[in-house]
Amino acid sequence: MTGFSKQLTDLLAKNGTIKIEDKELYAFGIQQGIVIVINILTVILIGFVFSMVWQSILFMALYFPLRSFAGGYHAKTHLRCYLISIILTFSVFAAIKYMPWAESVSIVTAITAGIIITVLAPVEDSNKPLDKIEISIYKRRTRAILSVEIFMMFIALILGWRQVVYCIAVSLAVLGVMLILGKIKNAAFSKMNKVRSIKTDQNSQ
Questions:
Q1: For a designed S-S bond to 142, which of 56, 60, 70, 114 qualifies (C-beta 3.0 to 4.6 A apart)?
Q2: Which residues, at least 6 apart from 4, have a Cβ–Cβ distance to it below 8 Å?
Q3: Distance, first Cα to last Cα, the chain
Q4: Which of 174, 185, 64 is nearest to 123 (CA)?
Q5: What integer pLDDT is reported at residue 18 of this predicted model?
Q6: Where are the domains of the chain?
Q7: How far apart are CA 170 and CA 58, in angstroms?
């Protein structure tokens, strides 16, 4: 994937379509675009396997915007991230389809997840820390999107759209788990860096 994006940007730069100094930026953008397209197609394919195509589209519409601002756990490589997303998607659709959901369970799940998201978000990637302004912006946007989705859930409850209710509850629950895992990962990363720093100081003395 990296090789393809590099070759494409080299070709674009050679043809004069983009500036040479902008190649890395365009290569990153193309690579991220490919990843997004593959993830979307994978989610829809898994939805097709479960006979839940419209639920898969709804899940993406609910989860991806919130995830982009709330953050959470991120794998080190694209391949590992993709494999985790496949397992996650299978788990989500299996939960929606086979778990004995009830309206009360959905409400409790969504409210609990909403509290976790409100308190923890945004959870930055340890390799891409956010500054104070970014944290403030991401937090506001996360809460705005979360409020809209909770409102949508209660509208769906009133209208009796149970599958929509379940999709919203599960998507919020999944994000809540990802935020908790992200916090744990960042805490472990920070602790590991402190240990390394102490060992370095000891060796230098």
A1: 70
A2: 34
A3: 45
A4: 185
A5: 65
A6: 50-196
A7: 11
